[in-house]
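Input sequence (123 aa), recorded before submission:
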Amino acid sequence: MRLPGPLHVLNEGLAFVLELAALAALAWWGFTAGGNVIVHVVLGLGTPVAAMVLWGMFAAPRARFKVALPLVLLVKAVVFGAGALALYGVDRPALAVAFAVVALLNTALATLDRDAAFRTASP
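Predicted structure, token format:
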């Protein structure tokens, strides 16, 4: 299923917003988790940085390593799942569910769209 141009752009923009929201959720959780300031800072900065590195290596459009689609989807599931769990961890269960549902739908649409684009581009 190939998305029409404007919907493709909208879905790609939403994907970027979801990526930023996952990082923000991980930072929010990290800065509130743990028992002291050092743990807050390490988790608040470390978890989003770890997610960014993972994403940049495997899931970004210009990822460092070109890997098969299943690994890209696994990385997206890990980062978006961690973002949803982080929201749940800061006592925002409804927001966690909404985030997970939107991320899942966005990723599914993007995957179908890219697959259709690849199929039409192949000779």
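Checked by second reader. The radius of gyration is 16 Å.
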